[in-house]
Design brief:
The chain has one domain: Porin, CATH 2.40.160.20. Strands 1-2-3-4-5-7-8-9 form an eight-stranded antiparallel β-barrel. By secondary structure, it is mainly beta. Strand 3 and strand 4 form a beta hairpin. It starts with a helix and ends with a strand. It has one helix and nine strands.
């Protein structure tokens, strides 16, 4: 119930921000999805490997004067990491899969036609965390922070007929540990395609 309330509040704030458009602004909306190359970083993390996931959702964009825009979205996004350890001649593999609702609000700037750059904050609500190892899996979010904050950076191209493609990076700034004692942060490289209606 707490997570549903957080999601509803965040989405309402997103709609309120985007709806405060000036008379010369234009609102666009559409869908986006793509591939996540996720890992974790931080002083307390050992040697981890990138895992592949995905993200999918919708966005609203307020275009300003044709060269700048504010864009907000709501996306389901898979993050996490993989671990490979060798012990006594045997290899052990494990995988951590974290599911989030990502809510980014970014400023976009297009200094040249068809190309744009973007940056802004992102709030992510933890839905589930699954650990897989030795053919077994266990789901638990105990000890993990419910709300993860990140800085989003990226660049993209606007293609014909409303299509777009972008490459972005999510730099987590809050520890995944709810007490902040264990320094581990989400790091996600995102390859995204979109369609604007």
């Amino acid at each position: 119930m707490k997570k549903l309330l957080q999601l509803t509040t965040a989405f309402t704030l997103l709609l309120a921000v985007v709806s405060l458009q000036p008379a010369h602004g234009q609102i666009n909306y559409g869908v986006k999805g793509g591939v996540n190359f996720a890992n974790v970083g931080g002083d307390d993390m050992g040697d981890t490997d990138m895992r592949t996931g995905f993200h999918v959702g919708g966005f609203l964009e307020l275009s300003l004067l044709g060269i700048a825009a504010v864009e907000g979205g709501v996306y389901y996004s898979q993050k996490g990491y993989q671990v490979t350890e060798e012990f006594a001649g045997m290899t052990f593999e494990g995988e951590n899969i974290s599911s989030y609702i990502d809510i980014p609000v970014v400023a976009k700037f297009g200094p040249i036609p068809f190309v744009h750059f973007y940056a802004g904050p992102q709030a992510s609500i933890l839905l589930d965390n699954t650990v897989k190892a030795n053919g077994e899996s266990e789901s638990s979010t105990e000890g993990m922070r419910d709300l993860d904050l990140a800085l989003v950076l990226g660049a993209g191209v606007n293609l014909p007929v409303g299509l777009s493609a972008s490459l972005g990076y999510d730099l987590g700034v809050t520890s995944l540990d709810e007490d902040g004692d264990f320094k581990a942060y989400n790091r996600v490289l995102k390859l995204t395609v979109g369609y604007r209606f």
